[in-house]
Amino acid sequence: MGTGAGPSEGDLMAGLAADAVPGAFDLAAPGYDLLVGANPGYHRELRRAATALGIADSGAGRRLLDLGCGTGASTAALLSVAPRAEIIGVDASAGMLLRAARKPWPDNVSFVHARAEGLTTLGPFDGIFAAYLIRNLADPDPVLATIHGLLKPRARFVAHEYSVRDSPVAGAIWTAVCWTVIIPAGVVVTRSPKLYTYLWRSVVSFDGVRALRDRLRRNGFTDVRALPACGWQRGILHTFVGQA
């Protein structure tokens, strides 16, 4: 995959499976905000991605879904660009969601504990935002089809996601950063390397940019495009936009 050296594929595949990710995030929740806050530009890029929803009038009269909201960083990004919208944050990790719910939020923000695979009745929405979610799904296609069905006609879906498979250089940078910074820091904070070795593996094995654009189109989205991040994550992190 052009991503450099690391543990054997067998060792990693014996680690964290996709269906165990919510439980791993439960354990990591207490230190999660500290870790992502140490990533230069993390919150700035979330806010930039949220603007791609194209929500007018500060979100007045709009309903937005933050799918895979975690501890609420992406929810805060949505709130910054649409402070008057109704915003619903959904996550499968009870631990992450508890951290999110404990933060001070205005009355137009609420949270729901649910798996993305099971969402069918919360819509319709004027926009759906999913940060770092799609590659964590065991089968993304049924969830993307569900997301499409939850959107109002011509409303946008924005997926903020790592994708390095099309670029050996981006893959090599991602591997170097993971094994020298992210994984060691994750072990110090959470006492377990599994979630962070999974993070590395999930990114290098995930769709390339072209493949994810094609996946969105197959699931009914139109006007699909990918926007690059800035800073050290350029070529690694992308914002994918599609219209229902």
The percentage helix is: 40-55%
Class inferred from helices and paired strands: alpha/beta
User: What is the mean pLDDT?
Assistant: 87
**Low-pLDDT stretches:** 1-14
Distance between the termini: 33 Å
- What is the approximate shape? globular
Q: What Rg do the Cα atoms give?
A: 17 Å
Largest sheet: 7 strands, mixed
Please give the count of helices: 9
Strand order of the largest sheet: 3-2-1-4-5-7-6
Give me the strand/helix succession.
Answer: HHHEHEHEEHEHHHEE
Q: Count all strands and give the number.
A: 7
Q: Which range does the strand content fall in?
A: 15-25%
Task: Describe the structure in your own words.
The protein contains 9 helices and 7 strands. The chain has 244 residues and is of the alpha/beta class. It has a 7-stranded mixed β-sheet, sandwiched between helices. Strand 6 and strand 7 form a beta hairpin. Helix 2 packs across helix 7. Residues 1-14 have low confidence and may be disordered.
Question: What would the keywords be for this entry?
Answer:
alpha/beta; 7-stranded mixed β-sheet; 9 helices; 7 strands; disordered N terminus
